[in-house]
Design brief:
Number of helices: 35
Radius of gyration: 29 Å
Strand order of the largest sheet: 2-4-5-9-6-8-7
Structural class: alpha+beta
Largest sheet: 7 strands, mixed
Oligomer: single chain
Number of strands: 30
Shape: globular
Strand content: 15-25%
Helix content: 25-40%
Length: about 950
C-alpha cells in the first residue's frame, strides 16, 4: 500500500488515497469550482466508460412536486442554448412564455381552463419546435461512436453515462460539459407524456408495485418511501419553473462528479478536463433536509393484495451506506442466504420447506434496512401455497440461529472469500469500477476504504458478526405480507391529444458544425485478438477452449454438453434439481454446498434447447478438488424428492397465475406470432407431465445429456498445459461421446397475408404491440446493411421509430424496430418491432409505426453519422476475456473465423444511403407482416385495425399448452 498525491496547478485539491495494487491507475482530484474528478487508467480495455453524476435524486424532490429529479433526467437530453439551437434569439422568448404558461396552469383549478392553457402550451411547443433540434445531442453522441447513451435516476442520485472510443475523449469532454452549462428543456410537454407512459407501464409491473409497498412501510416518514417516478397527482400538474429551480439548486459542481474509466491517460487529459468542466460556475452547496429514522418496536404487520402468489418480507433495522456496521451486517445476512446456498434460509429451500428465500440490505445514503423474504411452499396436492404466517415462522427460526451466533467459523471464512471474489470480478469491468467510484462520491465515503474493501472484509471478526446479528436481527421488525390479488390502478393519466412536434429535417446548429470539426486522437484499428484463445481436443469429440486471465486469480469454467431440451424435454427441470443435489452415497445437498463453499467455489447448472451447461467459478488453488466434486455429482447425482416436490409446486404455482400476468401474456403473444405452435409456451411439458415427473427419469436425463460431446471454456492464470492436465483428468467426460447436432433453431412462422392477432385484456394499463416480418435467410454479407438499417430505422434515440413515436408524438415510452437473425448462417432473418403504449394511444401509435414500415422517410444526411458510428462501434465492441472463446465459437456459426470488423470495415467505408434504401425496399417494404396486440378492447378500436389486415381474436388459452391443463 502507498499513499499518493496528485499535484497540479489546475486543481483546487487532491485526494490522499491508500490503494491496493490494482488501483494504481486511479487518480482523484477536484477542480477549483468544486467538481470531483475520478479517472482510472486501464489500457487493456478497448474503450472508455464515462459518467457525470449528481448527488441528488428523488429524495430531494420537494414534497409538493415529486418526480422532478426523474423529469429532469429526461429533459437533460434536449440540448442547450447552443446544442440543438438553430435560432436561440427567436426560440428563447417562446421558451420563456412556455415556462410562464405552466406556472399559470398550475395555479388554475378549473379543469376546462387548465385544458385550454395546455392546448396553448402545445401550440407554443410546436412553434418552438421549428427553431430547435431536441435530438441533436443524441446525434452528436452517435457521431463519436458513443454506445449505450443513457441516464438513470435513483433515490439518492442521478447519473448520465455512456461508453466511447478513447480517441474521442476530447469531444466527449466538450459535449458532456456543455450540456450542463445552459440547458434548455425543449419539448417539455411531450417529455411529460413520455414520463406518463413510464408511469402507466409501472402499473402493469406487479414486481414494482410490490417493491413500492415494501418501501412505503420500511421507510415510513422518509422520501425513500415514495416512488422515484413521483406521485400521479404531481405528474398531472407540472411546472417547468420548478424543474429549473431544482436544476439550479442541485446541479452545482461541488455536488457533482466526473468519472472516466478505461483506455485513457490521466496526465494527458487532466488539462482538457479542467478546460471543459472548469467552465461550470462555482455555486454554494444546497441544504439537505434531515429526516429522523423511525424506530421499529416489536412486531408490526401490514398486508397488501398485490401479488400473483404470497410472499412475506421481514424488515429489520439497518444502517446507511458507510456505517461501521455495514460490512458485518452484510456477512450476517449472508449467513441466512448466499450464492453458495449454505445459509440457514437456504437450508429451508433445500429441505423443501420454502419455495424460495432471500436476505439482503437496502442500504441508502441516509438510512438502511435489513430485509429477509420468503415465498411459502406450494403444495402440489392441494394446488395452493402455504400461508405467509407459516413462512414467517420458518424464517424466524432461521434468523434466530444467526442472531444467537449459532454458526461455524468456516462459513464466515467462505462468505468473506465469496465477497472478495465478487469484488475482484467487479474490477474487471469499466462500468462496475465507475459505479463503485460514483457510489463512493454519493455516499461521501473515503476512496481508500472503498477500494481496500477486501482488507476491510477480512478484518471483520466473528465477534463483530455476532454482535451485529444480535443487534439488528432482533424481535423488532415489520412483517409485510403480500397476498394474491390485483393492485388498484388509480391515477391513470389519459391521452391528451397534442399536436406532434416537427423539428426541421436536415439542419444542424452552429455548435454541431463546430463540434464535428473538432480534432480527435489517433484512430488505431485494434481488432479482437482471438489468437489468444488456445484450443485442444480433450476427448474424441470434446474440445477445451482456453483464454488467459490477466486480471486476477479467479477461474471460470463452462462445461457445455451438446444436448439440451430438444433431445430431452425434461432436462430443464433436471438441471434445476442439480443446483440443489447431493452426491449419491457421499453428500446430502447442503453438505455438498458446504464442501464447495469451503473450496471457495460456486457451481450452477442450467439447460436450454441446445445444451446442458455447468458453470463453475472460484480460485485456482482449489480447481482440481472443485472439478472432482463436480464430476462426482454429474456421474452420481443425488436428486431429492423434497426438491422435486418444491420444483413441481413452484412451476405449477407459476402456471396457475400466468394468464393473469400481463408481462407473461405479452411474451407469450410475441412468441406466438414468431413461432406459432412452436412457441415455448405451447411446445412445453403439460401440467400432467410435470405432475408425474420422477427422480429416476430426471437423473437419467442428466446422465444421457452428459454423454454428448462437450465444449469446455476455461479462463484462468494457470498455464495452458497444466490446465489441460487438470481438466482432462477431473471433468465428467465420457469416451466415445455422442455427436452433437447443436445449435439448431426453431423454424419461424411463415406470413402469407397481413394479420393482426388481438388478445383482449382489460387489466393491462398499457397496450403491448408486437410486429413481425419474415425476411430472407441470414448471410454475413448483409451484416453491415442490417446494422446500418437498424441504426437509421429504429434501435435508439437517433432512429426513426423512437423519434417519430416517442420524441415527436409522445405515444410510447418504449418503441423500437430492428432486423435480426437467428445467429446461424443460412437460417432466418426477420424484422421485429415493439410499442408499449396507453390503450387509448394504441391505434394511433400503430398507424405511425406502419407508416414508417410502408413508406420509410428518407434523410440522406444521416449516412455520415451512421458510418462513423458503425466503424467506431466495430473497433471498440470487444468481448470480455471471460467470454472471448464463446464469442469465437458463436462467430463461427455465423460464418466468421476472426473479428468480423476485419471483413466489415471496408464495407462500411463504401456504404451509401442508397444501400440502406435498397435493403429496405427489397426486404421490408410491401412484405406481408403479422402484428400481435394485447390491450383493453374498450379503448382500442378493432374496426380501425382492419385497415392493417385480417383481425383475429385470441384467447389466453390459445397461447399456452392446454393439453391436460389443470388450471
Amino acid at each position: 500500500m502507498k499513499a499518493f498525491q496528485i499535484k497540479s496547478l489546475l486543481l483546487l485539491a487532491a485526494f490522499f488515497i491508500s490503494l491496493p495494487s490494482f488501483g494504481q491507475g486511479l487518480k482523484a482530484f477536484k477542480l477549483k469550482n468544486g467538481l470531483s474528478i475520478y479517472t482510472w487508467e486501464d489500457d487493456s480495455k478497448s474503450d472508455v466508460f464515462g459518467l457525470v453524476g449528481v448527488r441528488a435524486g428523488s429524495i430531494n424532490d420537494p414534497e409538493e412536486y415529486t418526480g422532478l429529479a426523474h423529469y429532469l433526467e429526461h429533459v437533460m437530453f434536449k440540448g442547450t442554448d447552443k446544442i440543438g439551437a438553430l435560432n436561440w434569439a427567436d426560440e428563447e422568448p417562446i421558451y420563456k412564455e412556455i415556462i410562464a404558461k405552466y406556472d399559470q396552469m398550475a395555479q388554475e383549478d378549473d379543469p376546462v381552463k387548465k385544458e385550454a392553457i395546455s392546448k396553448e402550451i402545445n401550440e407554443l411547443t410546436v412553434k418552438a419546435g421549428n427553431l430547435g433540434l431536441p435530438n441533436e445531442y443524441s446525434n452528436l453522441m452517435e457521431s463519436i461512436g458513443a454506445k449505450r447513451v443513457n441516464a438513470g435516476t435513483y433515490y439518492d442520485w442521478t447519473f448520465y453515462h455512456c461508453s466511447f472510443p478513447a480517441y474521442q475523449v476530447n469531444k466527449w469532454l466538450e459535449i458532456s460539459s456543455q450540456r450542463f452549462l445552459h440547458p434548455v428543456f425543449r419539448s417539455f410537454q411531450s417529455e411529460l407524456e413520455n414520463v406518463y407512459e413510464e408511469y402507466n407501464r409501472a402499473q402493469d409491473d406487479q414486481g414494482r408495485v410490490q417493491n413500492q409497498f415494501v418501501m412505503e412501510k420500511a421507510f415510513a416518514g422518509h422520501p425513500y418511501s415514495r416512488a422515484i417516478i413521483g406521485l400521479p397527482e404531481h405528474l398531472k400538474n407540472p411546472q417547468l419553473s420548478k424543474l429549473i429551480e431544482f436544476y439550479e439548486q442541485w446541479y452545482v459542481p461541488e455536488n457533482m462528479v466526473l468519472v472516466l474509466v478505461g483506455n485513457i491517460k490521466a496526465q494527458q487529459i487532466s488539462g482538457r478536463i479542467n478546460a471543459a468542466f472548469g467552465r461550470l460556475a462555482k455555486k454554494p452547496m444546497p441544504e439537505r433536509k434531515v429526516y429522523p429514522d423511525f424506530e421499529i418496536k416489536g412486531r408490526t404487520q401490514y398486508s397488501a393484495k398485490v401479488g400473483f402468489y404470497p410472499r412475506v418480507s421481514l424488515v429489520f433495522k439497518g444502517v446507511p451506506a458507510g456505517h461501521p456496521d455495514e460490512d458485518a451486517l452484510d456477512i450476517a445476512l449472508s449467513l441466512l442466504n448466499n450464492n453458495s446456498q449454505t445459509g440457514t434460509m437456504d437450508k429451508l429451500v433445500l429441505d423443501g420447506e420454502l419455495t424460495s428465500a432471500g436476505a439482503y440490505a437496502r442500504t441508502f445514503r441516509e438510512q438502511g434496512r435489513a430485509i429477509v423474504s420468503a415465498i411459502p411452499l406450494y403444495d402440489e396436492n392441494q394446488r395452493r401455497f402455504e400461508s405467509n404466517k407459516s413462512a414467517e415462522k420458518k424464517a424466524l427460526k432461521a434468523i434466530q440461529q444467526v442472531a444467537n451466533g449459532e454458526f461455524e467459523d468456516w462459513k464466515i471464512d467462505a462468505i468473506k472469500a465469496e465477497l472478495c471474489r465478487q469484488f475482484d470480478l467487479q474490477m474487471e469491468s469499466n462500468e462496475e469500477k465507475a459505479m463503485i467510484l460514483m457510489n463512493a462520491f454519493y455516499n461521501e465515503q473515503d476512496l481508500g476504504e472503498v477500494l481496500n474493501y477486501k482488507d476491510k472484509i477480512m478484518a471483520i471478526t466473528t465477534e463483530d458478526i455476532k454482535r451485529v446479528a444480535k443487534e439488528y436481527l432482533s424481535d423488532n421488525y415489520l412483517a409485510l405480507y403480500i397476498e394474491k390479488g390485483k393492485p388498484s390502478k388509480n391515477g391513470k393519466i389519459e391521452k391528451p391529444g397534442y399536436k406532434p412536434i416537427e423539428p426541421p429535417v436536415g439542419q444542424e446548429s452552429l455548435y454541431a458544425t463546430q463540434f464535428k470539426n473538432m480534432p480527435f486522437g489517433q484512430v488505431d484499428e485494434n481488432f479482437v485478438d482471438y489468437g489468444e484463445v488456445q484450443i485442444k481436443q480433450l476427448n474424441d469429440r470434446s474440445k477445451m477452449y482456453y483464454t488467459p486471465n490477466k486480471e486476477n486469480n479467479i477461474f471460470q469454467l463452462v462445461v457445455q454438453y451438446g444436448a439440451g431440451e430438444r433431445e430431452f424435454p425434461k432436462l430443464g427441470f433436471a438441471a434445476s434439481l442439480m443446483n440443489n443435489a447431493g452426491i449419491m452415497g457421499a453428500y446430502e445437498p447442503q453438505q455438498l454446498k458446504e464442501e464447495l463453499s469451503k473450496l471457495n467455489a460456486t457451481c450452477h447448472v442450467s439447460a436450454d434447447a441446445d445444451n446442458l451447461y455447468i458453470i463453475m467459478e472460484g480460485y485456482e488453488e482449489t480447481l482440481p478438488q472443485a472439478c472432482q466434486l463436480l464430476s462426482r455429482q454429474i456421474l452420481m447425482p443425488k436428486l431429492d424428492d423434497r426438491q422435486l416436490a418444491r420444483l413441481k409446486g413452484s412451476e405449477m404455482g407459476m402456471r396457475q397465475q400466468r394468464k393473469e400476468n400481463v408481462s407473461i401474456l405479452s411474451e407469450a403473444l410475441r412468441q406466438y406470432i414468431l413461432y406459432g405452435e412452436k412457441s415455448d409456451y405451447i411446445d412445453e411439458l403439460t401440467d400432467k407431465q410435470i405432475y408425474e415427473l420422477q427422480i429416476s427419469e430426471l437423473t437419467g436425463d442428466i446422465n444421457r445429456a452428459s454423454n454428448y460431446e462437450a465444449k469446455i471454456f476455461y479462463t484462468g492464470t494457470l498455464p495452458f498445459e497444466q490446465t489441460y492436465d487438470i481438466l482432462s483428468k477431473n471433468l465428467p467426460l465420457v469416451a466415445n461421446e455422442r455427436p452433437s447436432t447443436s445449435p439448431q433453431v426453431k423454424d419461424m412462422a411463415p406470413v402469407n397475408e397481413n394479420t393482426i392477432y388481438f388478445l383482449p385484456n382489460s387489466d393491462a394499463e398499457q397496450a403491448q404491440i408486437h410486429l413481425y416480418i419474415p425476411m430472407q435467410k441470414a448471410d454475413k454479407k448483409d451484416d453491415v446493411l442490417r446494422s446500418a438499417f437498424n441504426q437509421y430505422f429504429g434501435l435508439d434515440f437517433t432512429g426513426l421509430v423512437l423519434d417519430e413515436i416517442r420524441e415527436k408524438r409522445s405515444m410510447a415510452y418504449s418503441a423500437y424496430a430492428y432486423v435480426g437473425t437467428q445467429n446461424i448462417a443460412g437460417k432466418a432473418s426477420y424484422l421485429r418491432g415493439y410499442i408499449g403504449t396507453q390503450n387509448d394511444k394504441a391505434n394511433d401509435a400503430l398507424e405511425v409505426l406502419m407508416g414508417l414500415i410502408n413508406d420509410m422517410p428518407k434523410n440522406p444526411k444521416r449516412i455520415d453519422n451512421i458510418k462513423s458510428y458503425l466503424r467506431q462501434s466495430m473497433l471498440t465492441s470487444h468481448p470480455s476475456f471471460r467470454y472471448k472463446a464463446m464469442e469465437l465459437v458463436e462467430l463461427g456459426y455465423r460464418g466468421y473465423t476472426d473479428d468480423p470488423a476485419k471483413e466489415n470495415l471496408p464495407k462500411v467505408d463504401v456504404l451509401t444511403f442508397d444501400d440502406i434504401v435498397k435493403f429496405y425496399e427489397e426486404n421490408i417494404k410491401g412484405k406481408p407482416y403479422c402484428i400481435g396486440i394485447m390491450g383493453d378492447p374498450k379503448s382500442i378500436d378493432l374496426k380501425k385495425l382492419e385497415k392493417f389486415g385480417k383481425v383475429v381474436k385470441l384467447s389466453e388459452r390459445k397461447l399456452f399448452n392446454s393439453k391436460d391443463a389443470m388450471f
